[in-house]
Amino acid sequence: MATFLYKLGRLAFRRRHFVALIWVALLTLAGVGAASAPPAGNSSFSIPGTEAQKAFDLLEQRFPGQSADGATARVVFKAPSGEKMTDAGNKATVEKTVDELADGSEVASVADPYTGDAVSKDGTIAYASVKYDVSGMELEESTKDALEDAAQQARDAGLTVEVGGDALQAVPETGATEIIGIAVAAVVLVITFGSLVSAGLPLLTALIGVGIGVSSITALASALELGSTTSILAMMIGLAVGIDYALFIVSRYRAELAEGREREDAAGRAVGTAGSAVVFAGLTVVIALVGLAVVNIPMLTKMGIAAAGTVAVAVLIALTMIPALLGYAGRRVKPAGAKGKLLGRSRKGAQKPQAQEKPRGQGQGQPKANLGTRWASFVVRRPLAVLLLGVIGLGAAAIPASSLELGLPDDGSQPTSTTQRRAYDLLSDGFGPGFNGPLMVVVDAKGSDAPKDAFTDVEKQIKDLDGVVAVAPPAPNKGGDTATITVIPDSKPSSVQTEDLVHSIRDAGGDIKADTGAETLVTGSTAMNIDVSEKLNDALVPYLVLVVGLAFLLLIVVFRSILVPLKAALGFLLSVMAALGAVVAVFQWGWLSGLMGVEETGPVMSMMPIFMVGVVFGLAMDYEVFLVTRMREAYVHGEKPHQAIVTGFKHGARVVTAAAVIMMAVFAGFIGSSESMVKMIGFGLAIAVFFDAFVVRMAIVPAVLALLGKKAWWLPKWLDRALPNVDVEGEGLRTADERGADPDEDRELARA
Description:
- The chain has helices at about 1-15, 15-35, 50-60, 90-100, 140-155, 175-195, 195-225, 230-260, 265-290, 300-330, 350-355, 370-380, 385-400, 420-430, 450-465, 495-515, 525-560, 565-590, 595, 610-635, 640-670, 675-710, 715-720, 730-740, 745-750, and strands at about 70-80, 105-110, 125-130, 160-165, 405, 440-445, 470, 475, 480-490, 520-525, 605.
- By secondary structure, the protein is an alpha+beta fold.
- Strand 8 (about 475) and strand 9 form a beta hairpin.
């Protein structure tokens, strides 16, 4: 592989005009596609194989024309202090608002509070339910404006009015902190390279890659039903890995220049060595993201595949456009050790001393050791102490994960500044906490001899269950073979008590079917959330086995070792558990919630554990590949195991540190999002990168390798013969170089 990528790097360097033209054309094509594509419609949320989904599908079949997936809104009214909603003036205002809402072109129905028992017992709060023909994402802006105008007119009349439901659903905003994250990445690149040109290359290529990826997602959003969160996730991961992959290749290019190579040859060797690591690191990320398909939740599958596509684009750009841009930059990209005038430390001929560096034993005849070398030397001397400290520290951070509670965000997790959250609170105050999460029980009596008796029997049995506040009378369809029953729990939607009630109703359904022949199903947003959480929990272990297993095999090929990939996988488990503990501490327990902008604590998003496992595993293997391939390279070239660890840190620690800081900055930039799910993902990934890069890869990994010594690189002979030699460490390039031959010519001679 190293020889093939070497040729690719040199070709891209020589044919830089052609390469740049291809990528600019792809960016333009994707941009035009995004601009001309129809707006994204509703991103259908389905969970095949669950009872809630089965009931939802049955509703669409038995209640045609009722738009089961149509948007809803609850316009909540509160009377002024000392008044009631039943007072003549307040009643007239509400009825006028209801009439105005009913005139909307996309409105299916509006329920009057005074005829639908929608006034609280104390008479201070009432609500009007609005049902639309289309989903929240498909509503026209004029319809949303009419809803807000009607609410505002009621406010002008003296009432407190808030609007809940998904009718006012908006595309999440990431906020200014995203730009701050990119700015931090730029500063880190400038400090790392000491040159604006060298720092600008990774940023430029990452932005082009993200532009192509996100524009492609936007262009396909309507056809593939991709939600807005999909493009945000692709942007988040694409920016992070795009900058990091380019950073590693540019850094290796500068190191090759420092050894006195010509620029075209240096570009080829940078792509042949660091590019090999980029390919395998990218593959682990792609495997982890595409592997989300095993969960069998279409929305999660689409998110994973879209993000994986953006990562693939980032890899291709790093392998081709970076060497092309290096050709354009020419002498403005300086060798490693030769700082630009930007930092005021320009040194002539700085590359010559580095060209003389040979591993002759630590501290003998070498220039002053850098921080990475000193740290690695310390770890090699005290491996057991460093290992224990790292494991204990991550274990302590993981403790909160033991109290993890899962759920999906609703209006109760919105900031208090939003009208949706204020409507949620008003309904909770007026009608009880369970009113915001009603359960819909669907009774399929098609196989029953007495459907009406079956409906009544189900209603009675549900009323007798603990945790039920109210049960609405059965509402049958026109055919009389199916009915819906609305159940109001006495606990909030995300509580354990509500989850227990759902299971109690489902358990009672078994007896009902035996007695009447009618099947009872529970659905609604609350039941759907519960089913999603259970489905994700059930899929976590198979997903771990699949993703970690495939990546383990891939890393065996890369490192030609059994223990190094095993250690990488175990280190990942430590970092992801510690990251989950941090997420629980902030978003569930409320630690530092003010600093993170978390206004409402509650259950952690159901998708978070499995999503973090996928994404963090891929990113963790990035640092494993980049750092340990340098150690493997030194070991293969004749260094002793302990010295190879020091050499790997000498060349890789600074760049890996910069890459980790950049990735953390990019992810942390999404903490400012208005969407709680995006905020949680941004924080979780940022803290996971911190734990994995600085504790696992920088401390635990070298400590374990130091303790293992030569055993770390052991591989059974039969397996060594069976595995393909991908030559990530560039041994083929080194062999050709030692003979004074061009790697291309060397390969032709080998074939002859």
